Amino acid sequence: MSDGASWDAEAHDRARIYQAARDLHITHQQGEDRTPGPVRLSLRHLLSCFDDAPLPLSVLSAEAVAAVRMPELPAERVAAEVRKLTDGAQVRTGADGEPPVPCVRADAAAVAESARELTDEVRAQLCAYAAALLDHALLRSPDGAAPDLFAPHAMALLWRSGRAPSRAATVARRVRDAYAAAGQYEEGLPFAVRIVESSATGAELADALALGRLQCCCGDFGDAEAVLRPVLAQAEREAGGRGLSLAGRTGPSIADILRENADGPFTGRLSPADCQVLTQVADVQHAMADALYGLRRYAECERLLHAAAGLRWRVLGAAHPARLLAQLHRARALGQQRLWHEAFALVHDALAYRDRAELEGDRPRDAALLRLAHAEVMVAAVRSLRDEGASRSRGVGMFPAPVVRFLDRTMSPHTKPEKLTWSDAVQLAEEAVRACDRAFGAAHPHARSARALLEQAGREQGSAP
Question: Which of the 8 DSSP states describes residue 263?
Answer without folding.
Answer: T
